[in-house]
């Protein structure tokens, strides 16, 4: 099958590379020339485990191609994946400009019957609009079928998720096209769920909203645990062992970030509003998450009322481990607030420093060495649970910091370990540890 993937961001690139690895001929098209030039040399513009290796392999096997030319990309394609970005507008609605442009371009360039499969996260009803655009503008009497095939790829494990996902959703009103999609994915042996197009579009939003709800729920329980001297980690194990609840997405912390949850929860709330349904539960989920991202500074100021001129280490910049993506990352909010407070920040991350530098410039210091980040610092805020941070001995905080105060936003250390050290340790939903000997330089 000749496949074209339109829009080479996270989803597009991972999908294209993995489909090529299943022995399909895949052409990737994107308007960004420097990105395409880089990909042609086998280098990935994003950090994603296993991706670059598969990229190089499939280019060298002659089944993965990159172009900026729509004519080359869509000519004789049997199947086109739409994977362009669907960013949020200021009011939380979805900006469908790239979807419209790609649909118009496809219509002008196709040369035969084709299945168009949307992986981009789009509001319910969008695939019908895509079909209308293509049918109105198409250059010949070709049969075009539009399918919704949402993606469930997590950054940091996107390649793994492509090959070992929990399910594949195919939303279609054309049984033949559904069968073609099923055959495409058959080598993966992943259960396929077939639905109508609108339900498939809704499954994506509902999945992300539900996962976000689990996170905000556990964060609310964590807030109460703090007041009542209970330990959220133990509570999460206790409730997660009930199969009806499940033990995933119950890690309390400083909230969810990334390119999906914040955007998709707001978009679903908007979508509900459009049909005169006020999604109060989801509004609360979003509100709780905003509060969580502000917790580190609030907790810091309870110990160190003025952060002006204080040296603060921020450990972890990516919105989660395993990625260099900083979009909607808690660290971004934390550092913006710290800059307002006139704190002197040294920020650590193993891979996300260049991206943060592009965002916040040189108003702070950056390092990829934890020891350097902690040197003479008065406050350390852990915002991403990188393995490098989880494995970093607490004794070294004592060695490098001045009267160490640690705000662990991801509960990286066990309370048993914490109690062995002379540190002021504040985490999420667990008792605070204050050493008897500590003296603060307020
Ligand atoms: C998510 C979905 O999981 C994926 O299916 C979808 O297609 C894209 O959006 P991603 O954004 O890559 O994937 O990250 P995910 O692993 O889901 O984590 C999102 C955020 O939630 C992170 O900031 C993470 O730190 C936070 N999180 C996750 C928690 O705070 N607690 C948890 O228990 C789990």
Automatic annotation (TrEMBL):
Q: Name one GO biological process term.
A: polysaccharide biosynthetic process
The pathway to which it is assigned is: Nucleotide-sugar biosynthesis; UDP-alpha-D-glucuronate biosynthesis; UDP-alpha-D-glucuronate from UDP-alpha-D-glucose: step 1/1
Keywords annotated in UniProt: NAD, Oxidoreductase
Key word Oxidoreductase present: yes
- UniProt-annotated binding residues for NAD(+): 30, 35, 86, 121, 155, 263, 327
* Catalytic class of the enzyme: oxidoreductase
Write out the GO MF terms: NAD binding; UDP-glucose 6-dehydrogenase activity
Catalytic positions are 260 (nucleophile)
- What's the Enzyme Commission number for this chain? 1.1.1.22
Every UDP-glucose/GDP-mannose dehydrogenase C-terminal domain range: 313-415
Q: Which Pfam families match?
A: UDPG_MGDP_dh, UDPG_MGDP_dh_C, UDPG_MGDP_dh_N
Task: Name the reaction it catalyses.
Answer: UDP-alpha-D-glucose + 2 NAD(+) + H2O = UDP-alpha-D-glucuronate + 2 NADH + 3 H(+)
List residues binding substrate. Answer: 152-155, 204, 249-253, 257, 320
The record's SUPFAM superfamilies line, in alphabetical order, gives: 6-phosphogluconate dehydrogenase C-terminal domain-like, NAD(P)-binding Rossmann-fold domains, UDP-glucose/GDP-mannose dehydrogenase C-terminal domain
Identify its protein family: Belongs to the UDP-glucose/GDP-mannose dehydrogenase family.
Q: What name is this protein filed under?
A: UDP-glucose 6-dehydrogenase
The organism of origin for this protein: Niallia endozanthoxylica
């Amino acid at each position: 099958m000749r496949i074209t993937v339109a829009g080479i961001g996270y989803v597009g690139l991972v999908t294209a590379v993995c489909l090529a690895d299943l022995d399909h001929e895949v052409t990737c098209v994107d308007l960004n020339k420097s990105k395409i030039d880089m990909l042609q040399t086998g280098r990935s513009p994003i950090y994603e485990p296993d991706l670059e290796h598969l990229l190089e392999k499939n280019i060298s096997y002659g089944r993965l191609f990159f172009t900026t030319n729509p004519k080359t990309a869509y000519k004789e394609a049997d199947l086109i994946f739409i994977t362009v970005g669907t960013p949020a507008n200021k009011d939380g609605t979805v900006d469908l400009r790239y979807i419209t442009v790609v649909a118009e371009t496809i219509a002008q360039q196709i040369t035969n019957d084709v299945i168009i499969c949307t992986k981009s996260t789009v509001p319910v009803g969008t695939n019908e609009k895509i079909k209308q655009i293509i049918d109105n503008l198409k250059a010949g009497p070709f049969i075009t079928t539009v399918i919704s095939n949402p993606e469930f790829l997590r950054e940091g494990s996107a390649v793994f998720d492509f090959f070992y996902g929990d399910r594949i959703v195919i939303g279609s009103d054309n049984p033949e096209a559904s069968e073609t999609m099923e055959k495409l994915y058959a080598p993966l042996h992943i259960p396929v769920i077939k639905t109508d197009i609108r339900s498939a579009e809704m499954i994506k939003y509902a999945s992300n909203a539900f996962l976000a709800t689990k996170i905000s729920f556990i964060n609310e329980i964590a807030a109460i645990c703090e007041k009542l001297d209970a330990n959220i980690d133990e509570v999460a194990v206790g409730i997660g062992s009930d199969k009806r609840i499940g033990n995933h997405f119950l890690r309390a912390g400083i909230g969810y970030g990334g390119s999906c949850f914040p955007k998709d929860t707001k978009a679903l709330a908007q979508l509900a509003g459009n049909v005169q349904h006020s999604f109060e539960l989801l509004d609360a989920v979003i509100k709780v998450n905003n509060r969580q991202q502000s917790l580190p500074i609030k907790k810091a100021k309870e110990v160190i009322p003025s952060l002006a001129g204080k040296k603060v280490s921020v450990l972890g910049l990516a919105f989660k481990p395993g990625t260099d993506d900083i979009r909607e990352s808690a660290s971004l909010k934390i550092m913006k607030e710290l800059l307002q407070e006139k704190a002197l920040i040294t920020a650590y991350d193993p891979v996300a420093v260049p991206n943060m530098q592009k965002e916040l410039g040189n108003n702070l210091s950056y390092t990829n060495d934890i020891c350097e980040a902690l040197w003479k610092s008065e406050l350390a805020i852990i915002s991403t649970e990188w393995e490098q941070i989880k494995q970093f001995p607490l004794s070294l905080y004592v060695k490098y910091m001045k009267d160490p105060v640690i705000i662990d936003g991801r509960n990286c250390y066990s309370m048993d370990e914490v109690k062995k050290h002379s540190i002021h340790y504040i985490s999420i939903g667990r008792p605070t540890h204050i050493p008897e000997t500590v003296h603060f330089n307020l």
